[in-house]
Amino acid sequence: MTELVTPEIMQPLLPELVLALGALAMLMVGVAWRDRHDGLVNVLCALVLAAAAAAVLAIPPGRQALFGGSLVVDDYARFLKLLTLCGSFGALVISLDYLALARQQKFEYGALFLLSTLGMLLLISANDLVALYLGLELMSLSLYVVAAFERDNARSAEAGLKYFVLGALSSGMLLYGASLIYGFTGTVSFSRIAEATQTGAGIGLVFGLVFLFVGFCFKISAVPFHMWTPDVYEGAPTPVTAFFAAAPKVAAIAVFVRAAMAAFPGIGHEWQQIVVFVSIASMALGSFAAIGQRNIKRLMAYSSIGHMGYALVGLAAGTSEGVQGVLIYMAIYVAMTLGTFAVILSMRRDGQWIETISDLAGLSRTQPTMAFFLGVLLFSLAGIPPLAGFFAKFYVFLAAIKAGLYLLAVIGVLTSVIGAYYYLAIVKTMYFDEPAKRFEPMPGLLRIVLGVTGLVNILFFAYPAPLVTAATAAAKSLF
Q1: What confidence score (pLDDT) does residue 132 get?
Q2: Structural contact between residues 391 and 328, judged by C-beta atoms closer than 8 angstroms
Q3: pTM value?
Q4: What is the per-residue pLDDT across 198-237, written as a single tens digit (0 to 9) for each?
């Protein structure tokens, strides 16, 4: 019998409908207002993202399956959709002043954010291989365009081309893996794949699993599929880099965890070995490769690779506590990343943006408030207590220890100590080097984002219950 589409059935997809209709409306408004009110269109796009976040909060509790089970909305999906929308909203807000100063006000910018975020939300709710691929491609196609948004900038065009070529390769490998899984199980549904793999997996299914995970690892920029990250982070416009570092990582981690837990619980030992290797390699590369960087955006690229490795420690545990650790980690990671990029976007001198770490010399004496909050965020990224970044790592390492992955936890702690070096080196540059020329005044929106994210990182230890409780409920909904 054909399922009737009623408002009650479609309510769980209200955030996606808000983004889809909002993107279409913004495109039409942008065409009507071309070259006159493009900045206002981008502001309206930010409001659409805020409306979608409110729609997520309005979804009734419980688990709802839609379109024959292809999409599922549960506590896990709601938590990560809200986090993704916060990441997209924050990235778009810190873009507004940049677009105005760079004279790059184009209405397509905000619409691309909406379309990409729509793909992320569909990806988070995907409960079969077809929905997974459609959400991934909708997200990726918009990201390819936005990476090369500054068409007259050779570095931006190069970043977009590299991301497109390597992204197409990873999508092809993921699709090949999905076809192998379908061929050996006879289904694309995660629940039915789980039933088919209860008794183990043959070599063909393991190959499919590996190729599927390759696609996921590319999207989260985990080693050894990280090769695009430093070049794209450095070449893309800085607010686009902030967007790349926040929202798409959340969506990719979300589908990585759901696919592993929901579709392959019967062969957990096989995929756990893959995740452990990728996690160790990412943590190690992120710790060592960033030490010699002089460009702060490239340093943040290697930092994000390392942080994805830490997040995967929770997935490697394969338990509810591990998933809870991943969710807490990603929430804190988004706050740390947006705040840091707010400072990077404020590194403007003589009408030009600068990206060299040495340009932060003596910032504590020229702009002490900015230096203080950046120092807080860097200490948090390094995982130093009592800041939020410490608790993020604490939860994933604790889950690994409870799962018996002692060596993984020890390696994680060691790489975290090594990685702290390059964060502390920036703090040393800000507080002990001779002052460089003062930056231009920090725009108001960037001040707000920096202040909010800085206070979240400082005060998290005082009242962590709301995030921990929400993450616990979200993790349990997967099991």
Answers
A1: 92
A2: yes
A3: 0.93
A4: 876 678 888 888 999 999 999 898 988 888 888 888 888 8
